[in-house]
Structures are given as structure tokens and as C-alpha cells.
Amino acid sequence: MPTPTTRLARSSVLVTILALAGLSLLALSSSKSSALRARVPDAYYWIPSLQSLPFSSPDSSSSKTRISEVDVNVPAVQSPLARRKANATIVMLARNSDVDGVVQSVRDMEDRFNRWHGYPWTFLNDEDFSDEFKLRVKNLISSPVEFGTVPREHWVQPDWIDETRASASREQMRQENVIYGDSLSYRNMCRYNSGFFFRHPLLQKYRYYWRVEPDVHFHCDTRFDPFLFMADHNKTYGFTITMYEFQRTIETLWDAVKEFSQQYPHHLSPDNALRFLSDDGGQTYNLCHFWSNFEIADMDLWRSPAYMEFFDFLDKKGGFYYERWGDAPVHSIAAALFSKREQIHFFREIGYEHNPYMHCPAEEDLWERGRCSCQPQRSFDYNGYSCLAKWDAVAAR
Fold first, then answer.
1. Is 295 marked active-site?
2. Catalytic one of 295, 323, 349, 353
3. Which residues of 57-92 are buried (b: 16+ CB within 10 A; e: fewer)?
4. I need a surface site. Which of 108, 184, 247, 363 has the fewest CB within 10 A?
5. Among the residues of the chain, which ranges form H helices?
6. Is it the case that residue 48 has pLDDT exceeding 90?
7. Reported CATH class of domain 88-395
8. Cα separation, 23 vs 25, whole angstroms
């Protein structure tokens, strides 16, 4: 007669076989792009090990315990698919003075995602990180951590910018109470995030990144691996919140985009997402963009000839300093024009908040599965200032 240990081993094998079978079914249905846009497949989630389930033997009555009833803090194993890891890192650009907000974000990210996945962190700063910063951050992270300094030539305002004109623009925006309108450091940051972060030596070994900022909150358990999902389905850009940009900050950006598109039409992707950006076939910009303080993306997109030429073209226009072009519209426009629309993904499962806006899963099963602490009715998704309805229309076409 088989012992309980033997039966347990057989059950473990059966679970593995069933998981692999699920992967085969996933592969067969991978052509259903609308389903992939809607949900991350179950195969990308962690599952508790049989040994962690609260029963003495596989044939006991308690073996029917629902996964959601299992203690979430027990050791877990991954599905056969999720045992792989993507070539990816979590990236944060921060200052030493941000350390309290950094600790908040790191703790949330570790508790809600990375304790199951163990992806490395990369921290970047325009000056050397302090010992206190490094100590407090490393105390929260069990995976590899690297700290890097941004090269000065990638951060400061270029010498060829007309400072008289740039300072006049900052002063005018200050008088108009434009958010960050008078800030030179904010403009440096936007330019750096638009065209340089992916060139940093510490990031050269990675392909995918998840951008995290200080003082953000993750409200749901993310047991699936978004990096693997991106890699396996050829996604280039992932987001949780989308909204309208302030027109005053990008008054000539779309003119520059149209000029670039006319000079380099070969860089535009077939079946792109122009309809998300423009309501009149590209004549004008409707101001919709993905909020880039959360983005999961493929750095090969930014490293591509199309994007490198695009950024250089925009940079020479001086709009990062003469106006206040943000990395969010720059990244969004590039992702929408240089990728196929099916390569852009809305991560509806990930509860995320950057004050004052929040995305919370609206579907009850996703909310329960993620043990979400947010209130779906407070989600920004279909707020009047949100562009998610436009994205839904583009993705569903």
C-alpha cells in the first residue's frame, strides 16, 4: 500500500502535469489577443506547494481547501512557467532626501510583488547615494541591489540651450502656476527619463524594467510575473493609469512629432495606436498619455533606432527646457507609434497609487485574488480626466 509520502509525491507530479497541460492550452489560445489584453493568464501566477496545504494526507477531506483560504504567508512554489525569470530589474530614480518615500515604496513593492520573484533593484541618483540611504534600502531587499550615479552630461541642461529663453519660460510658467513650471531639476529629470536612463551602465545587462518612484503604494498582491508576461507575448509597454497632459507644458510637441513622422515614416509601426493619441487622424494631439511613474517596459524599444532618432530629434527642438515636455507624453507617443497596439498592455490586476491618482482592480475576482486593500470605487480608471476609455476602444478594435 502506498504510504502518505508516496501519495504526496504522486500528487506533486500530477500537479506539475496539470500545470504543464495548462500551459499547452495557453499556447493554443495565445492568438486570442483580446483575451491577452484583458487578463494575465493563470499560468503566470505562483501557486502554494502541496506541502503547505493544511491537510495530513492528500486524500483527507480537508484537501479540498480553496487556494484563497490557504495562509498567504506559507512558502510558495511557482508554476512550471513562472520558474523562469525574465532579464529584468526594478528601477528607481531618487535623491538622498527622498529616503523616507523610497523606503515606503520599496517596502510595498517587496511585500506585494518581489518577495515571490526576487528581481534585482537598480537605484539611480544625480549624486552619490549616502550610506544611510543604502543601509535603509538594503535592509528591506533580499535580492541583489545596485546603486548608480547619473553621468553629469546626461543630467544637466545642455550648453546649446538658450538659457535666457529657458529661464524666461520658467518664470512665465511660475506666474501661471503651472505645476513644476519653474523647476529646472524637474526638466532635467524629464529629459533624463526620456532619453538616457536606459543607457546607464548598470542597466545595460537588462532588457525589461519596472519603474517605481518614491512614495507610491501597491495595493494588491502581484503573484504573477509581469516581466515574463511581457517577454512571452512580445509586449513593449505596460501601464496602469492613463490621463490627459497639461496643454501648456507641451504646446509644440505634437508639431515636432508630425515633422519627425514625415521625415522618418519608415519608423511608424503598422497597426500602431495613433487613435489613442489623436481623434482626427494625427492632425492634433488629444493629450492622452500613459502615466510613466509606473511603467513596465522593454528597453529594446527605447534602444531601437526609431526611438533613438526620435529622442534626438525632439531634444534638438529644446522643448524639454523652452517648454516643459514630460517623459510621460514622450514615452507614450513613441510606444503608440513605434509599437503595434497589441504590444501595449493595461495591467488591470496591479493595484497602484501615486497620489492623488489610483488604479484599483474593478473585477471582484481580481480584487479578491490580489487581496487588494484599495477601494475600486475610488479608482481613477474612468474618471473624466482619464483616457482609459479611449485605450479600451483602441485595444478592442
1. yes
2. 295
3. ebeeeeeeeeeeebeeeeebbbbebbeeebebbbbb
4. 247
5. 4-28, 33-38, 99-109, 115-117, 131-138, 152-155, 163-175, 184-195, 226-232, 253-263, 274-277, 299-303, 305-317, 319-322, 327-338, 364-369, 388-395
6. no
7. alpha beta
8. 5
Task: Cell numbers for 356, please give them.
Answer: 492623488
Alpha-carbon separation of residue 115 from 108, 214, 231, 371 (angstroms): 10, 19, 21, 15
How far from 243 is each of 39, 109, 291, CA to CA, in Å? 21, 23, 7
Under the banding of pLDDT at 50, 70 and 90, the label for residue 66 is very low
DSSP summary character for residue 350: -
Residue type, 57: S
8-state DSSP, 243? E
Q: Which of 96, 104, 89, 93 is nearest to 143 (CA)?
A: 89
C-alpha–C-alpha distance, residues 248 and 77, integer Å: 50
Cell of 59: 486524500
- Ranges in the chain annotated CATH 3.90.550.10: 88-395
- Looking at the predicted structure, is the pLDDT value of residue 189 above 50? yes
Q: In the numeric block, which cell numbers belong to residue 308?
A: 533613438
